[in-house]
Amino acid sequence: MNSIFPKNKQKSQVIVVVIIIVGAVMVISLTLATLMFAELKNQRNLTYSLAAQYAAESGIERGIKDLTGGTCSPNTHVDLGNKAKADYQCGDTTPPSTGIKKITSTGEMFGVKRKYEVEVYDHNVNAEGGTSGSNIFLRPKFWREVSP
Fold first, then answer.
1. In which order are the strands placed within the sheet that holds 138-146?
2. In which element (H, E) is residue 90 found?
3. Residues of 13-45 as b/e, b for ≥16 C-beta within 10 angstroms?
4. What is the C-alpha separation between 147 and 113, in angstroms, rounded?
């Protein structure tokens, strides 16, 4: 019996269908791979952001320690190891007689930066701006994240 389609035409149609199916599978695979790599990049940046946050917090803590010792410099760089680093600055707020000191710290990990600012209050500063005792007691007044 003769069929409506000759044998060569049937083979050609099968090849075309197979090529379309393989193409669709490739497009789906590439789309999934792209999404997977984008998610991996986001996860890595989240990890770096968290490390940068910890580095910035470490800079704040070192600034408080330096202020307690009375020797906080205007700009200090600290290498925290594992490619994390912190830069922190200490200074008086205006007016300086209030006893409030400002510490700004920027943490960085592989180019991802987080910056924090804290004001600490010195309980030993009296109304005239002088210290009422030899021990410095610092208490954070506020702590906030600012744009790096």
1. 76-81, 84-92, 100-109, 112-122, 138-146
2. strand 84-92
3. eeeeeeeeeeeeeeeeeeeeeeeeeeeeeeeee
4. 9
CA torsion, ordered 41, 85, 107, 123, to nearest 10 deg? 160
Residue 101, both tokens: 């000191």
Question: Tens digits of per-residue pLDDT, 19-31?
Answer: 999 999 999 999 9
- The backbone torsions φ and ψ at residue 88, rounded to the nearest 5 degrees and listed phi first, read -135, 150
CA 54 and chain centroid, separation: 9
CA atoms within 13 A on the CB side of 25: 6
CA 54 – CA 91 distance, rounded (Å):
22
CB count within 10 Å of CB 70 equals 7
pLDDT greater than 50 at residue 68 = yes
* pTM of this structure: 0.66
